[in-house]
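JOB MANIFEST
job_type = single_chain_structure
chain_count = 1
residues = 250
[input]
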Amino acid sequence: MQELEICELSGQEDILLSPYLPASFAFLTHVALCAPFLALDALGSVSPRVRSWRIAAGSGPPPSLRRWFACFLRVLYRYVTAVLPATALFHSLRSPALPQLAPSCWQLFVEVFACLLLFDTLFFIWHVSMHRVPWLYRNTHRLHHQHHVPFALAAQDSGSLELLSLLLLALSSTWVVGCHPLSEVFFHLINSWLAVEDHCGYELPWALHRQLPCLGGAAYHQAHHTLHSVNYAPYFIHWDVLFGTYRGPV
């Protein structure tokens, strides 16, 4: 019996330490988090209440199912051809091991919050650079800005170079903080959700930024896609306020 339990634990650990798990989990998580907004886009054609949640300023009708599917194929292609090989290589070089104990609730909170703050800072610097350096914008970021009015799935509709650079920023954040693996998982989940919510195109009554004024939210990020020269930070607003690039919802 004990040998059977040991074999089961060993099998579970092999799955958790698979070099292909991080990219697969990230892609499936992104798609799952986008699903409720696909439902909202479908309901928008028949529900005035859902249409009232759409961000104004000429946002137009919700994206069509064909546009969603085309975006899905582009994101899937870049995950298979760029993100999956890169994360597998990094995973094999890092040779991670699973600790015996889970982190305390306080440790989990501190590490996740520290990662979000650090990632927000690194992303702000990188995002400003991509906009201010013409070569970087043309070869890295312009593809993402094809969406003048973003929608949820478009949060990761970027070129391979940009996706890999953001992956590097996220992994660097967890490495600098020294995260427990469980804290790292929570950070990536929250990071994915905030990215999806920022691009969703809806000003929802229960949106996270309505509860936490330090967050920008979907209207804040849609202003960036409209004007390009404002609201560079992904989640928090303090860097844009400090550097004079903050702009309220357009």
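[summary]
The mean pLDDT is 85.
The chain is about 65% helix and 0% strand.
exit_status = 0
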